[in-house]
Amino acid sequence: MTQLVYFFGDGAAEGGTAMKAVLGSKGANLAEMTNIGIPVPPGFIVSTHVCVEYLAERRVPETVRTAVRSAMTRLEQATGRTFGGAERPLLVSVRSGAAVSMPGMMDTILNLGLNDTTAAALARQAGNPRFAYDSYRRLVQMYGDVVFDLKGQPGEQDPFEASLEAARAARGADREIDLPADDLRDLVTRFKAIVARSTGRKFPEEPWDQLWGAMEAVFRSWQNKRAIEALLRLHILRNETVHVYAHIQSVTLPQADRAQATVLVAMAGVPIASAQDLPALVADLNRFEIEFVHEGRVWRVQRAAWRRAEPGEFLGS
Q1: Residue 141 pLDDT > 80, yes or no?
Q2: Eight-state DSSP code of residue 242
Q3: Which of 19, 54, 71, 250 could be stapled to 219 by a disulfide with Cβ–Cβ 3.0 to 4.6 Å?
């Protein structure tokens, strides 16, 4: 059975740099550092295969949920903390990864696991309520941005930033760090209200619900415009990190300032001489549908979508 989740911690890791295609570059390097004795905080990596399956099925399979729960138990044991615990809460981050480093391509959510109960526990344990509630309001904001897509439309102010500015103005504070704990606790309530008002859904108080929502959002970020543009820049245009075989299947100009392109792209760890090589290789095959708009003197990507391709599509091109 294919392993779905890989643990690292306590001086040992499942995997290493040779497994970047499965663990992603970030995950593989964390595993390698753990194996050579660098004191890396423990964690676990959900395999890239799970992301591929999610994008095809649009759901997290129960086998993955079971594997994640098992890995979380190991993480609790390694840290002496409990995910969702009311005394020593375990907080985690959900971070994106890919076989090739793509800064800014995908999304991250920090401080996951905080709710009213665990934030109070963190405040007691740290002896610093301001730290606890600043972390909590940041979680609600990041979750709103990434999971609920509440970043604000182009030309509009981010609703969370607007609320934060209002809190600073009311306090006469120039910086966030000047806001006291009570103001930050109030911001948590305001940020939750923004989520409810904008989406008709409540911010999830249950840490496991937070985790599943964050995982799915990071998986979905593989198919947003920012991800596709980064993928094209790094893999097709620069062609510096992997061996690429690209075939521009079609380019049309339905209007003078608009263009549509279909590009078949194969990426592999070894050179690809022709499409005939693909059936025998372990290659990442994709079909890109891209729409460009001419603005000023440059063409810009207006819309881009991609899906997995089959070797036969390349052979038939």
Answers
A1: yes
A2: S
A3: 54
Final residue before a domain boundary, out of 55, 80, 105? 80
Helix (H), strand (E) at residue 220 = helix 207-220
For CA atoms 264, 270, 276, 280, the dihedral sign is: negative
Q: Are residues 20 and 73 in the same domain?
A: yes
Model confidence pLDDT, tens digit, residues 48-63? 889 878 877 889 999 9
Please report, to the nearest 10 degrees, the dihedral formed by the alpha carbons of residues 243, 47, 76, 38 taken in order: -20
Tokens of 281: 């290789």
Do 92 and 115 lie in one domain? The reply is: yes
Task: List, as one string, the DSSP characters of 272-291.
Answer: --SGGGGGGS--EEEEEEEE
Residues 266 and 213 grouped into a single domain: no
Query: 222, exposed or middle or buried, with CB in 10 Å at 0-12, 13-18, 19+?
Result: buried
C-alpha 184/C-alpha 177 separation (Å) is 10
Q: Which DSSP string do the residues of 36-66 spell out, in sequence order?
A: TT--PPPEEEE-HHHHHHHHHHSS--HHHHH
The residues near 134 (Cβ < 8 Å, ≥ 6 apart) are: 176, 179, 184
| pTM for the whole structure | 0.72
Scanning the structure block, which residue is given the tokens 């395999």?
47
Residue 49: inside a domain, yes or no?
yes
Q: Which of 80, 114, 134 is the last residue of a domain?
A: 80
Q: Indicate the number of domains in the chain.
A: 3
Please give the Cα distance from 9 to 39 (Å, whole number): 9
Confidence of residue 235 (pLDDT cuts 50, 70, 90): very low
Other beta carbons less than 10 A from residue 22's beta carbon: 17
